Amino acid sequence: MYTENDYLMWLSCIINLGVDKRNQLLDYFGSAEDIWKSDRDEISKVINVKENVLHTIIRTKTNELMEKRLSLLREKNIQFVGVSDILYPDKLRVIHQPPVGIYVIGSIPDFTFPSVAIVGTRKCSVYGKDIAYLFARELSQNNVIIVSGMAEGIDSAAHRGALAEDNVTVAVFGNGVDICYPAFNKELKEKIIQNGCVISEYPPGMAPKPYHFPARNRIISGLSDAAVIIEGSEKSGSLITANHALEQGRDVFAVPGDITQKRSDGPNKLLKQGAYVLTQTSDILEVLRIEPEQNNKINSKNNKNITQALATDEKLLYDCMGENPISVDELFIKTQMELNNLQCVLTMLEIKGFIQKVSGQRYMKV
Amino acid sequence: MLSKIISGALTGIDGYVVETEVDISQGLPCFEIVGLPDSAVKESKDRVRTSIKNSGFNFPVKRITVNLAPANTRKEGPSFDLPIAIGILTCIEEINNQNVKGVFFTGELSLDGGVKPVSGVLPLIYGAFKSGIKKCIVPIDNAEEAALVKGMEVIGVRSLNEVVEYFNGKINIDATTVNYDKLFSEDNNFYEADFADVKGQDNVKRALEIAAAGLHNILIIGPPGAGKTMMAKRLPSILPDLTFEESMEITKIYSVSGFLKNKNALVKRRPFRAPHHTISNSAMVGGGRIPKPGEVSLSHNGVLFLDELPEFNRNVLEELRQPLEDRQVTISRINGTMTFPANLMVAASMNPCPCGYYGYSEKCSCSQSKVDKYLGKISGPLLDRLDIQVEASAVNYDDFNVSIKAENSSTIKKRVVAAHKIQKERYKNENIYFNSALSAAQIEKYCKLGKAEKEIIKSAFERLNLSARAYHKILKISRTIADLSGSENIGVSHIAEAIQLRNLDRKFLK
């Protein structure tokens, strides 16, 4: 009376049962339904687990509990996709120890499109955040799905970059999908759900635990054709993602960083080991054999057209700016304009969308 | 035998006349003071007795009763020493009763009969003058301060003996006078700090100029060492010179607080107060058993500088909201409710994050939650009162070497003064003086926008992530910028510049 999906959901809810044991059971019995129908002795023959885990397996095999869980999922608008489901991403199915099922809020995108994971440390620099955003945006213009973990710092910036282009983005959680962690990303989570989905292998209500995140990272890399590591120390979660990606046969890109900073150790180490050097979006596109969408690219905006639309003052100021932020003081010295006029022209350029203000009273070309 | 001597006491920063009645009658020797004296007043018994004795007079061995009328207000401090002593000496006919009639006395006595200065002389004398008193005896160290009250004959004295001899016609003491013109003309350029010393940071300087022109409160955000404090310290140097009335108001407050020395009887420079961030509530807004002015009142007609704004105790910052709105602060204590003026301009500075380098240097790795928490220490309503929020950029070595000559304070001041004049003229029928005080209704009236201006403000809101509360602020600042440039209407360029001065609305610290 239940579907295979439902039985897989039951399997995924058993606490203290490792993902390897779950997959062992699935391999032996062939389907989750058969595990449900088997008895204690048979299960204990297949996997070597403690008595209390066995007890949990047997105890939770009740229709009552199943109904309760299913109605909870319906209530919270969560979809469970088992490993045998047609919606389950193929990319994820082929990895070592795939989750027996994933909980999803939103709609699972078509993973036949290329997908790239952009990850990095939470304690990132503003520069790291900026480039994560930029890469995510440019990849999005080429219809690449952006996968990340919605942690603060690099992850959030990557999601934001994708959202800025109204592109599909996927966040993988180390907790139940109904919980927003970190809590201040509530708004971001809603936006991700509108444009893509949030995914977790943990049942709803599961709180984030430190050991969830390394396991979560294998799903991030598993859903992606390539992983981009922006910043992270030598022992950070980003490196775990990179290692998973390598094991799963996915390409690893690292952005070279300042060698004096601890947060650059991770990517620099990966580069030493032979990861692809990432300095521009086309580096990824080439490796993934994606034809760049010429007309959409940010950098290919026709300079001539822009400058024609500007007044003399605006043109003068615009020409002084580059891709790197420049402070208003420097602009003042460079252009020798009156300060009040300068400020006014800056606002105009901002409103027209040609330049962007960043922290520290600095401006850069969009 | 009864004598009545005029003296005074303070409520808040206003003085009122207190009649010191001394009665000496037959009976067991005793010395009583009634009329709600505090302990310093009660102790004056001993000072008075000893100093009369040590001045060479006989202290009467009789029943002495002193009443401080009105008897229902609390009297504090040692300023009744002199009037009580004079009262006793008049009773025993060392001084002729007729001579001290209509003369105001104040002063503390020392045991050797010397007269020591007291605080709050200016408001005391001013209060006495308003009730029709024309002559006063004050400690010599307070004489110049007292002489600021025009029309009052001020006699500065050194000792009790001097007073007695003066009234008995044995010596003559010239009345102390103050030459107002000289007071105001001499060394007008007393601000050592000048904007010419500040290299670079032109956008912050411009923001400070706008802030000064419209008396907008300003918040400067920047990394350590950007010169935030240095620039804020120079703010008084571009504010217009004090008028005599403003100067008197400040002097009264300083007099009550006991901050005046004889050398600078009149406070001539605009106050610049920079309290440390560990300051308590009552030190900030005023308080104490008998309320005394706090920092907000001490910066009346001047600048209150709050360095490292998020480090301040949150309660202290919240207390600032009411004085900033009402331009005065009312303190209620058991001994009465007092109102002190607090027409001040707030300049505050802060770092963008706990380490100070967020967005400025690769040194910073403060997490988003840390940055949010740091910025969150300043509540929305308080932030709302800081009209201008400007970012200072980090200073490079090159900035010290630029050959561009920085403008000096007096040049900037001229423009600010002109803008103040325009505002005074425009708001002559309103109860406000500056753009910063415009209410929502007044903004409608005085900040009319043309079609192009409306268009730009609309697109700015759509494109630039501005929050709703920014709207009125931008209009007010635009009004000030227009006044600075001498134009009657707010133009597109004024609005565009004002938008650059609302950084915290823009959320790019996120």
Provide a quick synopsis of the model:
Chain A has 366 residues and is α/β, with parallel strands linked by helices. Helix content of chain A is 47%, strand content 13%. Chain A has 18 helices and twelve strands.
CATH architecture of the largest domain in chain B: 3-Layer(aba) Sandwich
Total helical segments of chain A: 18
- Return the average pLDDT of chain B rounded to an integer: 88
Rg of chain B from C-alpha positions?
28 Å
SS class of chain B = alpha/beta
**Could you describe the largest sheet of chain A, including whether it forms a barrel?**
9 strands, mixed
Determine the most extensive contact between two protein chains: A-B, 37 and 46 residues
Topology-level CATH name of the largest domain in chain A = Rossmann fold
> Fraction of residues of chain B in helices?
25-40%
Tally the structural domains of chain A.
3
> Going across the major beta sheet of chain B, what is the strand order?
11-14-17-10-18
The CATH class of the largest domain in chain A, by name, is Alpha Beta
Characterize the structure shown.
The complex is a heterodimer of chains A (366) and B (510). In chain A, the strands form 2 sheets. Chain A has a 9-stranded mixed beta sheet with strand order 1-2-6-5-4-3-7-8-9, sandwiched between helices. Chain A has 18 helices and 12 strands. The N and C termini of chain A lie far apart (57 Å). Chain A has 3 domains: 4-75, DNA polymerase, domain 1 (Orthogonal Bundle); 115-296, Rossmann fold; 303-365, Orthogonal Bundle (Arc Repressor Mutant, subunit A), CATH 1.10.10.10. In chain A, strand 11 and strand 12 form a beta hairpin. Chain A has 366 residues and is an alpha/beta fold. Residues 295-302 of chain A have low confidence and may be disordered. In chain A, helix 9 packs across helix 10 (186-195). Chain B is α/β, with parallel strands linked by helices and 510 residues long. Chain B has 3 domains: 2-167, Ribosomal Protein S5, domain 2 (2-Layer Sandwich); 195-430, 3-Layer(aba) Sandwich (Rossmann fold); 438-510, no CATH class. Helix content of chain B is 36%, strand content 17%. Chain B has 21 helices and 18 strands. In chain B, the strands form 6 sheets. Chain B has a 5-stranded parallel beta sheet with strand order 11-14-17-10-18. In chain B, strands 1-2-4-3 form a 4-stranded mixed beta sheet. Chain B has a 3-stranded parallel beta sheet with strand order 5-8-9, sandwiched between helices. In chain B, helix 8 packs parallel to helix 17, helix 8 crosses helix 20 (470-484) and helix 20 (470-484) crosses helix 21 (492-499). The termini of chain B are far apart. The mean pLDDT of chain B is 88. At the A-B interface, helix 17 and helix 18 of A face helix 8, helix 15, helix 19 and helix 21 of B.
